[in-house]
Structure formats: C-alpha cells, structure tokens
Amino acid sequence: MDTPAIVDIISKVDGVAEYHSGSIYMLAVLPPNSKNLLDPPNISELYGDSLEGDGRKSFDAQINSYNYASKTDHVLFFNKKNSDGTLDPTGLILPVKKISDVIGADDSADYDYSFSMRRDIFPNEKNSVLYYIIAPELGNALYSEAQSVKFIGGELTSPNPNVERTWNIPTIFSSLADLNSDPKLEHSGDEEKPNNEYITQLDVSNAAVSGYQLCAKIMCINDESDPSYPLWGKEIYLRMYVKSRNKNFNRIFKINPIHTPDSPQGKLATIAIKINAPELNDVRGYQQGGAGKIYFEYYTIDPVTQKKTYSNYWFNQIMTSDL
Questions:
Q1: Which of the four pLDDT bands, split at 50, 70 and 90, describes residue 43?
Q2: Is 214 helix (H, G, I), strand (E, B) or coil?
Q3: Tens of pLDDT along 110-151?
Q4: What residue spans in the chain does CATH classification 2.70.50 cover?
Q5: Assigned CATH class of 5-152
Q6: Domain topology for 165-318
C-alpha cells in the first residue's frame, strides 16, 4: 500500500451542524523501499542522542524539503517502532499537522520545515526514536529514517565526558570586569578566574552595576588550519552548568557571528559574553561540606551535517551564599 488513504470522520446533527471528529490514516507499516528513506528529523538540541529537560516544554524537529512537496501534505510523527522495524501506531504523535501549518500562506513549500513538539512525548530516561511519514493527498507516502532520542527529564549539570573536544577553553571573569572600558577583556587580568579556582560571593557582587554575574571570553580565528579556535563568522553556543545543594541547571547563550579581527590584518577576533544569570547570586555549599561546581564549554554546529564541535571545558567550584 504505497498510496496512503486519509478518511475524515464527520459527525452530523441534522438541521444543526457538522463536526469534524477526526481522521483515519491508512498507511503501510513498512516503507516500500528501505533504500529511499528521507533524512531523519533534525533536533538541534540533541546532545549526542540525549534531549534534556532544561526547564523547557517543547523542542523543534526540522525535516528537509523533499520532492513534490505540497502545503496540503500531512506529516505524521511517531516515537515508537515495533521490534521487527514496522511502525507502531500507538507511537503516533498528535496532533497531525500539514506543511501549511508550519509555513506562511505566501511561502513556498520548497524549504525545510520546523515542527514544535512537546518534550514529554518521550519516556524519561529510556531509549526512544522520532521519525515521520509524509502522507500526500495525491501520490505515494514517504518514510524517513529514525532519529534515536533519549529524554533526560532532569537537568544536565556537567559537560558530556564522552565527546571529542577541540577548541581551547573559554576564559571566565568576575562581575568586576568592566566591559564598557575593556570590551575585549585585554586589561582585566585581575578579574580573571582561572580553571580550578573558587567562584565566591565577591565575584558576582557587582552584578547590580555591571548587569552580569560573570563574563566569558572566546577567541575566533580566520585560519582553518589552526585547530585552537573556531572560525569567525560562525554562530557559537556557550553553555554553563551549575551543580550545588540548591541550584542545579544549565544555560545556553547563543553568540552571534563576528566578522572583524581585533587588529587590521590580524587573524584573531575576541568575543566577550555577559553571563546574566541571577541564579548565581545564591549558590549554596553542601550541608556536609564542600562547594558546588560550575562549568563552561562552547560549541559550533555544522549547518549541513549538524555535527557539533566542542571546546575543552572550564571548571571551578562555586559558593556564593553563606546559607
């Protein structure tokens, strides 16, 4: 059954109104040709195969444009497969949407499509999948490959130890560093926080004046042969992790591309990032003794393959409250 059948169920009350009660989708449980599958949905938030809770309820799943796409095509997402590889109808994610639901009325149907989905469609801490089937009003159904997903409902509080790391570690400064007078943090060495040094109440105390509890410095380069730094002109994502008695969270700061070197004819460009995170004002040590932990890493995402390239991470202990 290559051609899908879609049956709309209508409830009618004579003389009153008609109501659309739902739709039945009749599809083959296996694609007719396993060699012509569409790409799996792209979930940019995946960390390996892990999708974190991170306090957010939804995530975006993007599918690539495909031949003869139409705004009337139905897109059915599933999060389950049977052991023999056939689709599991109990894994259908509702509501089913059309391409027209995710593009503007005047937009072409020949672009990639982004669908917002709830995180809780996946079971917590269990291996799952996400794949989709295109059911057009005319023509054959199209099946995608499956993307492995493991939903981690709790907060991720430290960097992944199993990824390859390339770039240099970021440099971290206290809130006393003045980005107005020293925008490239070239003369703020006294406020630099080396790896493995405590973050204290003093370090975040100037946030009310500066507008940030900490700030970070990342270097970019225009030389592809130098593996120390990411190329400038690329979006960079800085990620902070905190683990303590009362604060356990991570935060991602998206950094816009930079295209200008620090000096004429130079190769390096400095990016300074304000870490505006009020949670850092009240990080408590453990009752049995010992401070919390704080990490920073950054990464880039290849726009074609979606592969992430990571920096080495900065680590410190943190305790900014006496409670």
A1: very high
A2: strand
A3: 678 999 998 889 987 789 999 999 999 888 899 999 999 988
A4: 165-318
A5: mainly beta
A6: Coagulation Factor XIII; Chain A, domain 1 (2.70.50)
Instruction: Give the distance from CA 319 to its chain's centroid.
Output: 28
pLDDT digits 0-9 by tens, 64-78: 999 889 999 999 999
pTM of the entire predicted model:
0.58
Q: How far apart are CA 38 and CA 134, in angstroms?
A: 10
Element (H, E) at 271: strand 268-275
Q: Are 219 and 229 in contact (CB under 8 A)?
A: yes
CATH 2.60.40 maps onto the chain at: 5-152
For residue 165, the surrounding DSSP H or E stretch is strand 165-167
Which residue has 């981690």 as its token pair? 152
The amino acid present at 189, given as its one-letter code, is: G
Mean pLDDT of 287-312: 89
The three state secondary structure string of 13-82 is: ECCCEEEEEEEEEECCCCCCCCCCCECCCECCCCECCEEECCCCCEEEEEECCCCCCCCCCEEEEECCEC
pLDDT at 16 over 60: no
CA distance 199 to 214: 9
